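Reviewers asked in the last cycle whether our approach scales beyond single polypeptides. To address this, we selected a multi-component target totalling 748 residues and predicted its structure end to end. The input consisted of the following lines:
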Amino acid sequence: MRRIFSQARKELIQLVRDPLALALALLLPLILLLLLSTAISLTVHNLPLVIQDLDDSSASRRLADAYRASLSFHVVTWPPDRQPEKALMANAARGVLIVPRNFGHDLARGANPQVQLLVDATDSNTARITQGYANQVTQSFNMSSGAMAGAALVGAQVRLWYNPGRNSPKFYSPGIFVMGLSMFPALLAALAMAKEGEQKTILQVYVSSISAHEFLLGKILAFMVIAACEWLLGMLTLVVVFGQHIAGDPTPFIVGSVLYAFCVSSFGTWVGAGIPSQAAAIQVVALAGFLLVFLLSGLIFPVENIPPGLRWLSNVVWGRYYIEIVRDALLQGGGWPAMWFSVFMIGVLGSIFYTLAWVSMRRMQVKA
Amino acid sequence: MNRLRALVRKEFSQIRRDKRLAVSLIVPPTLQILLFGFALDATVSNLRLGVIDWSHTPESRELISEFTESKSFRLGSYYTSVSELEQAIGRGKLDAGIVVPYEFAREIRRGRPVDVQILLNAVNANTATIAQGYSEGLILSYNRNLAANGIRPAVRTVGAAPPGQRGVVSNLTAFLYNPGLVNAWFIVTGTFGVLLILNSSLVAATAMVKEREQGTVEQLLMTPASTTEIVVAKITPLFVLLLVMVVMAVAVMRVGFSVPVRGSILLVVLGAALCVLCGIGLGTFIATFTKSAQQSQLTAFFVNPPLATLSGAMTPVEAMPAWMQPVTWLNPIRHFGIITRAVLLKGSGMDVLWPNFLVLVGFAVVLVSLSIWRFRKQLG
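The resulting structure, written as structure tokens, was:
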């Protein structure tokens, strides 16, 4: 036990003396959390829209005003002698609304006129949202002109739960928090372990009286401490800057976090032990931490959308389970009944990484 | 000129012997484009819908099947109380719920308006926004069905409409350039730029640092070549190799995701070449601050994520906060993303894209000369 602690202390001292590593451990995750959580969002607003009014009647102007007044769009002027589609080609607008001739007459006659909406669908998600927004604006135009008063029998009362303001950072910031936590402790652990191999200091460890488990646990403990510091700073940012708070029973979150710190530190140690070259170890951790956790964990895009051929991979992506736990703890508050499996999986993956690290370390001995 | 040619030849033969570099330049980017294109998909479909049907009538069942038969929702299961439904949404077993009230059919038969409640798990703001649009559309089409069957409201509830204004306006939406709404087209064309910049900066940084790590910079300096010549000679073979990567990436986009090529592919290659130059300049610049390969790799962690996120490559710029949007114009990836999407998907030409090209040229010139200046200063 004592040897584990002194090993951990030695690691931490080594780390504190390296300013670049320290910045990586504590500063960078915070910067990323702040920057990415603010920048990543899919819910667009204030989209540039060109309105081409071929009718120029009072009714068509009222429709244009309805679009102008909505927060979802801002109307950009486009010379009437240029083709409206050119506005999309030149990236001046995301959509074009064309009000046909005789729109006002048709409306006054009681006919049901159609207006055309051209949407730039290069970004399909934004295109869908644009369509939804435009339909809402047109519908509210109908309401205000009294037409819908009779037309709709069944109304929809939509209730948004857990995040009624549809605040994107609330959803993405826990994911970014997890990404930082998956990357940097693992990166530092891999660097430290690879350094032992590269500089052959591992031989000194073998001749000392410390056992393999004590050595590994000591190293892992040190990086768990780093992860804990990062966790505290990150949580503080989540609470203070992004207005998150713990919803419901915090115990699965706490247990999951400790296990996760163990899991990522063991992963890093394993990579470092398996690849005794610092430059290559960095690439592996970056690839695994960033690509897997970023792409296959449901951080931005739902896991269900990944084609089945790739989706099974996400079952072994450790970040995915922790993202579920953090989101649940901060937004939904489902507690143990919802989260026991994720906590369990993190524990399982952590012990697998630990075993692998132990095996690679024994191999390192043979090589050295 | 002779000196430069000799140096370039030296760099080329050096790279030719480094098979790993050539492989690492071509294989990972191709895989990454494939992975990103397949894995990043924002499409919202098949949302699990929990149903509470207190009405138990043909009318309510019809409304529910309107939801569950659409591609957007699928039936999760039925519930009898709101608290059960609430629990199921809280545990993540459902994405949405619909509550049909007891008096639903009775009110419809009497021609009186009635509301159904739709509960959406809004933890993911994007899914919620799109799901709301879907459900409103479904209710609208249910109403149209009712009207087609001759069931109309009996009493006008809202204040009398002005006479002669009874027409209903509807939007006829046409999705241009990507009518199938294939999300991969957006992701792949955006990721292209990110990969170009990240890979070329990584490669350039490694090549520059290597010379220093092995102490061969001094030997280069002893030659009569000027620093500019040394740097240019170093950049040339990398540039050529990276262009091979560009061609590979375009082929993957074309074959793997059937991204159309509606404009001139030469414009994309030109933009990509400028993008690669920017990346090389950036990598060389980073390398002049660091002493070893891992240091320059670690420094890249500080530079790459902001570059990749503030580019509009994977998420739309319009979704960023207003103060952040102008910052993205300082990012070469943003300009290149605009060029790729406009040329490939929209078929735009130089007439609308010249400002973006101009900015890219500016970035490339500034970054490369900055790195030459740093390189020279550092050796002085």
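The first strand of chain B starts at residue 47 and ends at 53. We regard this as preliminary and will revisit it once experimental data from Aim 1 are available.
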